[in-house]
Write a structure and sequence with these properties.
34% of the residues are buried. The longest helix has 18 residues. The chain is globular and about 55 Å long. It has one domain: 3-Layer(aba) Sandwich (Rossmann fold). α3 links the parallel β1 and β2. Helix content is 36%, strand content 16%.
């Protein structure tokens, strides 16, 4: 059952997200990168029991069906507004829930995808709590794909309402998942080429301004006007090239806006109980 809690997010935010994430170069590009990483393990897989932990407006639920059919992908989100848009996309298996206390039995899912959630969790150590919950509900040998922002990101400052907002280093996040017992299959930065200019701008801004906090203006991305659609295509092409590079299991990128981890819960015979 979905109950309304208007304090979580805003309708306007999710409406804009719903409108742009299908066509905007960044959303399309990061999905293509993630597809390459998951296809290296799951291409051709069917009937997987999958959870989208922080499903937003449901575009990832639709995309993950390639691995779950004939089953439906399960989606959870803390925002009532987000789940309304998931319903609009035709997704029936939805739950309003926090990743800090997942309403599922242990050893249930084959795959969990968690996109852009960990950095927003409130409270010290809450990201570790969420990772522990993911570990609990994964089947032995099940996988978790985490996408989050990196400390090399857009240079976005915290608002006064976002004191818990996190910006990760890759080695830091790897340590957190290992501490929960996961085995790392892939750990890389992503969106690397397009991060160079914003990283320079961030450096110059920090030198000029010692007070980087500002108020969050909500979703920053916008669809480009029609006369700049070629730029949307060009930028997506850059991301698509990066996706091709990262689709090889042994390849990683050393910097970028985004961190992507694919980690596995060990099988029962390989589990190190001291890390649970």
């Amino acid at each position: 059952m979905i109950s309304e809690n208007p304090k979580i997010g805003s309708y306007k935010y999710y409406e804009r997200l719903y409108e742009v994430e299908g066509e905007h170069w960044w959303f399309r590009g990061i999905r293509t990168i993630t597809t390459g990483i998951l296809d290296a393990r799951y291409q051709g897989a069917k009937n997987l029991h999958i959870l989208d932990a922080g499903c937003g407006t449901g575009v990832t639920l639709t995309w993950l069906k390639r691995y779950s059919l004939p089953k439906q992908v399960v989606g959870i989100d803390l925002s009532w507004y987000a789940l309304q848009f998931c319903q609009r996309r035709g997704h029936p298996l939805l739950c309003q829930s926090s990743v800090l206390e997942l309403p599922f039995k242990s050893n249930l899912f084959d795959l969990i995808v968690c996109n852009d959630v960990l950095q927003h969790l409130p409270g010290n150590g809450s990201d570790k709590i969420a990772l522990g919950e993911f570990y609990r509900i994964l089947k032995p040998e099940g996988c978790l794909l985490v996408r989050t922002n990196s400390s090399q990101g857009m240079g976005r400052g915290k608002s006064l309402e976002e004191e818990d907002y996190r910006m990760y280093r890759l080695d830091e996040l790897c340590d957190k998942v290992r501490q929960k017992g996961f085995r790392i299959l892939k750990a890389t930065y992503a969106n690397s080429l397009l991060s160079i200019l914003p990283m320079v701008k961030r450096y110059l801004r920090q030198r000029k301004n010692h007070h980087p906090h500002h108020h969050n203006q909500g979703l920053a991305v916008r669809l480009l006007p029609s006369y700049l659609r070629w730029l949307n295509t060009l930028l997506y092409g850059v991301m698509k090239g990066e996706a091709w590079f990262l689709s090889k299991p042994s390849r990683i990128l050393p910097f970028g806006h985004t961190i992507i981890l694919l980690v596995q819960k060990p099988g029962l015979e390989n589990r190190d109980h001291s890390k649970i």
